[in-house]
Amino acid sequence: MAFNLKKRNAAEIPQSSMGDIAFLLLLFFMVSTVFVQEKKFWVERDRWPVAESIERIPRNHTSTIYVMRDETILIDDVPTRIESAEDVFVSTTLIRKKTDDPDLIVCFRTDRDTKYGVMSDVMRQLQDANTLVVAFETQQRKN
Amino acid sequence: MKIGRKRKGKTEIPTASTADIAFLLIIFFMATTKFDVKEGIKIVLPQATEKQEGQVQSLTLTEKEMTRLQIMANGQIVVNKEASRVIENNDLDTLIQQKVKINPDMIFKVITDREAKYNEMVRVVDRLKAAKIEKISLSTN
Fold first, then answer.
1. How close is the nearest chain A Cα to the Cα of B46, in Å?
2. What local confidence, expressed as pLDDT, does residue B56 receive?
3. Is A113 in Cβ contact with B46 (below 8 Å)?
4. Nearest CA to B78 among B137, B124, B131?
5. Do the Cβ atoms of B33 and A102 come closer than 8 Å?
6. Reported ipTM exceeds the 0.85 cut
7. Could you tell me whether strands B39-44 and A62-67 are parallel, antiparallel, or unpaired per DSSP bridges?
8. What stretch of H or E contains B15?
9. Residue A5, min C-alpha distance to chain B (Å)
10. Number of compact structural domains in chain B
11. The domain containing residue B72 runs over which residues?
């Protein structure tokens, strides 16, 4: 008696949607990539202080203040200086930012050779704006 | 006479390599994307106090409770009432450990001269943070 053997089809993984999946991934990367625009005022990473006990700062609640060696302060892409008690641009900007995000962390990207006086003035304005959590961005010390 | 017409084949754009191209593009994006990670020394500033007459509180702390680290304009450091000197990181670590041994709840007050470099303040705060010191006060003169 002849057995009726079933003919097996060759098992294949369907690959027709591979291109669509790949393009979806590509679109995700293209949409989620944020290009940091080069600013007119900038403190290069190699000009930051070097430290050992550094911690990661969550990006989503941060606002960066750049402080140049010539004591120019850059906040929200607007350069400013603190020369007298009436120069309250930093505190007024931060009050607005703090209202938008109560968990705001202010990050300092400061040239390591900047005089501490200007940093002290900025921190005083931070206190006035009740923005109390600050981070000094540093490079990791290489052992 | 019968004119022999050529049979036209169905025109198709070959899409077999589309996935390969897309994956190559993904690899390119993954390799070139640079994440701007924020890292640094995090501190919490004290709240601003408004000076009102009769409401100003003064607190006198002894050397057993608080250590003053005064950073001078030239980078030298004055520890409490000692003479100013250059203190390297290793010596600073030893000094902090000695102070913590005297009082584990020691408060460190870092007083930085307005003319001193920001780098010096960060260096001192970094050493304090490395020694797991929680009570750090920043001020200027």
1. 7
2. 60
3. no
4. B124
5. no
6. no
7. unpaired
8. none
9. 35
10. 1
11. 66-140
Residues A104-128: pLDDT tens digits? 999 999 999 999 999 999 999 999 8
Residue B77: CATH number of its domain? 3.30.420.270
Residue B130 in domain:
yes
Across the interface, whether the CB atoms of B45 and A134 are under 8 A apart is answered yes
Average pLDDT, chain A: 84
Domains and CATH numbers, chain A: 45-140 (3.30.420.270)
Whether B134 is in a domain gets the answer: yes
Is residue B116 in a domain?
Answer: yes
Which residues from chain B sit within 8 angstroms of residue A120, using beta carbons? 112, 114, 140
- Pick from B129, B121, B127, B110: which is nearest to B67 by CA? B110
Q: Which of B137, B78, B45 is nearest to A94 (CA)?
A: B45
- Mean pLDDT, chain B, as a whole number? 85
Report DSSP state, residue B14. -
B15: chain A residues, CB-CB within 8 Å: 19
Residues of A in contact with B120 (CB under 8 A): 116
Task: Kindly state whether residue B12 falls inside one of the protein's structural domains.
Answer: no
Which residues from chain B sit within 8 angstroms of residue A23, using beta carbons? 18, 22
Two tokens at A48?
């930051």
3-state secondary structure of B74: coil
In angstroms, rounded to a whole number, what is the distance separating the alpha carbons of residues A124 and B112? 14
Q: How far apart are CA B123 and CA A116, in angstroms?
A: 13
